[in-house]
Structure formats: C-alpha cells, structure tokens
Amino acid sequence: MMQQIKIVWLKELKDAVRDKRSVMAAMSYAFFGPLLMAAAFYMLISQLTSESDVEIDLKGTEAAPAFTQFLAERGIVQRDKPWPAGREPIVLEIDPEWADKIARAEPVAVTLTADFSAQKQRADIRRVEAAVNAYSSQLGSMRLLMRGLDPRLMQPLDLVKQDTATKGSRAVLLMGSVLVFMLLSVFFSGMNVAIDISAGERERNSLELLLSQPLTAQQLVWGKALAASCFAMFGGVLSVILIPLIFKFLPLQNIGISVDIATAHVFLIMLLLLPLALLATALQLFVSFRAKSFKEAQTYISFLLMVPMLAVFGVEFARIKTPILYYLPLTGQHQALLDIIKGENLQYAAMGISAVATLALSGLLLALIGRMLRSEKVVFGL
Amino acid sequence: MIEVKELRKSFGDVHALDGLTFSCPAGQITGLLGPNGAGKTTCLRTIYGLLQADTGAALIDGIDAQQDPLAARKKIGIFPDKFGLYERLTAREQVMYFARLHGMDSTRAAAATQQVLERLDMVAIADRRATGFSQGQRMKVALAQAIVHQPKHLILDEPSRGLDVMSTRILRDLLRELRSQGTSILFSSHVMQEVAALCDQVVVIAKGKVAAQGTPQELCELTGESALEEAFVKIIGTDEGIAA
C-alpha cells in the first residue's frame, strides 16, 4: 500500500524537479513576492518619515521677520512653484500691522486659508497650525515673564500621553498583509505541479495506462498529492525564511515597528503550513483532474485561488471575531500566524485541532478524487 | 487464459458491446479484428477493468477484472490505445516506473528493465529523455512498459501503428517469442497482413458481437475466399474501416 504511494511520489517528484517551469513557479512567488512587498514598504516608510519642507503661500512676511524666521525653522517656507492642478493653495496671511499690534500686546490676526477637508493636505495644514500655535504660546510666555509672572500659570493641566501600543502590535497592521503572503505561498507554489500531474497526465494521454496498473486510484492520488505538496511546502518554507530576512533590511524602526520572528516561531509557522500545503494540493488536484487540458485546468485553478484569498481577507475586513475561526482549516492557520506576529499567547490546542481538521478535509478531497478516477465518465470524458 | 463472457456495455443508446464471448488460450496469439467502432478498444478496456461492463465478465486466469481489478492487472501487460510518455523521464526511467508499480524491488526492476531494453534493441536511446523520440521509439517504450514485468497475458491495442519495417519485425519476433513462452496474447488490429502473419486465432467482431472466429485458414475456408481481407469483408458484410 505505502510502497505504491512512495513509487508514484518519487516518480512525480523527479518528473517535476526536471520541469523548469514548475520549479520557477514555486521559486518566483516565494522570491519576488516578498521583494516586491519590501519595495512597497520601503516607499511607504520613506514617505511617512521624510520631514520635507511644507511650501505654502506666505503673505505679509516683511512685517514679521522674526515670525517668518520661526516658521522657516519649522520647515514652513515660501512657495516658489505653482500649485499642482486640483490642489487648493494653502495661504498664511500675516496682518500688516503686526509690529504695532505686537508692541501694544493686542491679538494679531494670522489668517490660514486652505481646503480643510483635503486629505492630502491635512498633514501640511496641521504643521502650519502647530507652528503658529507654538509661536503664539512662546510669545505669551515671554510676555508673562516680562510682567514677572510664571508662564506655567497658563498651563493648569498637563496632559501626559502614554502610548501603550507596543512595537509588535503596531506591526500587526503591516504584517497582516505579509501573513497572507505566507499562507498563499503554499497555494501558488505547488500549482504548476498539481496541474501537470493531473490535467497534464490526461493531456499527454498517459492517464489510461497509469490507471490500468496494479495500484488503487487512492494510492495514485496520494502519491501525486504528496509530490505536489512537496513543491507547495518548498515555496512555503522559502517565503517563511525570506520574508523576515528581507524585512531586516527595511528601516522599520523609523516608523516604530519591529518585526522580529524568533527562530522557534519560524519553525512553528512552517509546521502550521504543512497541513495547509496538502489541502492546497488536494483542492487543486480536485479541480484539475476534471480538466481535459493544462489550459483548462489553469482557468479553473485561478478561480480556486480566490478561495484562500477571500477566506483570509474576508475575515480581516469583516472583523469577524469568533473562536471558531481558530479551529477551521485555513482560518485556523491564519489566526495562529496573527497571534505569533502579535506576540500573544499561542493556543497550541487550537492549532492542533485546525491542523487535524485541515488534514481531514484534505483526506476527504483526495478520497473523492480517487472515486472520481474510478468513474469511467471522468476518465474518458464520456 | 483470457476469457470474455457475454460482455455487454452501452454508452447511452449506443451498444458498444452486445454479448461478446471469446477466449484467448495460453501460448496463442489471438487477433481481434474489426472495423472502426466495432468495440475493439471498449472490449480491451473492459478486460483490464477500466470500463465496467453492464453485464457479463472478463476473466484473466479466472480472476474477474470487475471484482478484483488489482489482482487481474498484476497478471497482464497492457499496450493501450493511447499511450503518452513522460517527456522529462528517460526511456529507462519510464520502463522502470512500471516495473516498480508491478511490485518489483529496485534491483529486480533495474535488471528486468535492462533486459527488456536489450530485447527491444533500445539500449542506445535508453538514457535519453523522451522529448525527442520518434513515433517508433515511443511505441517501443510503450511496448517495453507492457512486458517488463513478464506478464502471462499481454493485451495490445493496435500495436503496429506508426512502426517502420524494422520495428514491426522486432514486434513480430517478440510476440512469437512470448507465445513460445506460454503467454496468451490478445491484440486488436485492422491490418490484415499482420493478423494473417501472426495470429493462431482470429476473432472478427462487428457491432459489438463476434461475427466469426477461427484460424485465418478457417475463416478463408468458411467464406470461400483465398485472402483474409476478402474473407473479412464477407464476414462483416461491408468494406468500411479496413486498412490493408
């Protein structure tokens, strides 16, 4: 029984390893995916952290050189270039009677004109406001001091902000998408092999002879599924190793995020992906054994790839929070991975149960495929 | 010994097999002769259990392929209607794969593979991948796959198509040699010369039934013709689907 599975498994593995297309497919997803992601994050980080100058229209600066100087120190400077199309100008107008009013200690009007609903300009507007407020309170303090009063009189309360967000929990936002990548890697990497050993076998007319050999359809299916799972797992392992490695080179600390997956956790993730790799293969074989050609199978499988994506993103966006998710195939692995990244307490029992559920579902699918291959309708496409 | 008893098989309204009965004794070559669509391939597929007969049975040494397909398949070598090679494997690896599937351990499988490759004069191409193989070379690989485990029964579906003269001779010699070793051989064909040259017994089938059965001589005497082709035409009553 096992011997036959092993023979099929080894043969399919040898066949697949020689197929450059399959190997490239397994590698490219694991390699280029994280690289692409890293590039995107790199852009995001540099955008978030760059303290470039805010260029706005300043009017009446000649009346208040000290204020203008102050603004320039805070990176708010006169704009030389015209405003790009579709953007409302931000204008800061200083009262021409600045010097007189300051001398008399009267409030001076400083008018900020801008589209306050514009998302893109919100950060710029806030910086201008903060700078104006800072100058105002600085001036206020000086006036109090000159009158012999403690400026702290004006600050009866002191709001102390303590950010309890750990670097880990902030990372969840970012790593959520990376996780999806790891999960999907097992779906992508074995895909080509899965098609080749099912629909491909039919296309090159070798299915009939193979089914006429002294082995059960069940043994055949398991041998093939294990071979494709090896490829799926290969891609999974590669992405689990590469993603933390690539993220080490990103200046994530600049945005207050640390992505640090302990080595033990890396192995745990691989272990979690193992049953998922079998499930991915079983699903792919299930559809592509029905297809008559490689092309047809590819079409079906591209639809099939939506399943894990929908499951993972759906849970994420719908904010479904139920403990059942921990025990189901696919979502169970997803939740476990989230916990690992968040650094929360790991629910090993739930992981075990979802692994068993995943394996059971795969076994069921493979049994169905075996039954399908005993049906002459499917085999000969009658 | 392959026995086919009262096989019936329909695909929808089409009666592919309609009470087919014949047997192939050990140490004899039986030719299954019939026009296109007569049910030759359906009959062979039913014998190795790939198709389920509606009624009737196909027995291989008394084992019903419908009841115990694995045991039946262990006893037969198959050269199917459609055979595809694994393009990325060498000829030796393909043949070895089938030897292993028939339960040989790797040393025995390697020895049996070497033997069959030598027998079929394939040593020169044995370690080449199948991608560039000619039709004849592909046929030889398929043939080697069918006989590597030295089955007592050999079923071939139109084995000589696409073979050049030299390969056809190798095939004929091989079949005769296997016959002398006591193998029962059943092959389908519509090439008259080949059937006349090789077969101890000819089963002519038309419309899923046995139309006539006997040695090539007997068939000729039966119809009063001197050539098997003419006899065949008379038996099936039409000259459709014959390749001389």
Automatic annotation (TrEMBL), chain B:
One of its GO terms (molecular function) is ATP hydrolysis activity. The keyword ATP-binding applies. It comes from the Bacteria. Gene3D superfamilies: P-loop containing nucleotide triphosphate hydrolases. Keywords: ATP-binding, Nodulation, Nucleotide-binding, Transport. Pfam families: ABC_tran (PF00005). Residues 2-232 form the ABC transporter domain. Belongs to the ABC transporter superfamily. This is ABC transporter. It comes from Pseudidiomarina taiwanensis. The lineage of its organism: Bacteria, Pseudomonadati, Pseudomonadota, Gammaproteobacteria, Alteromonadales.
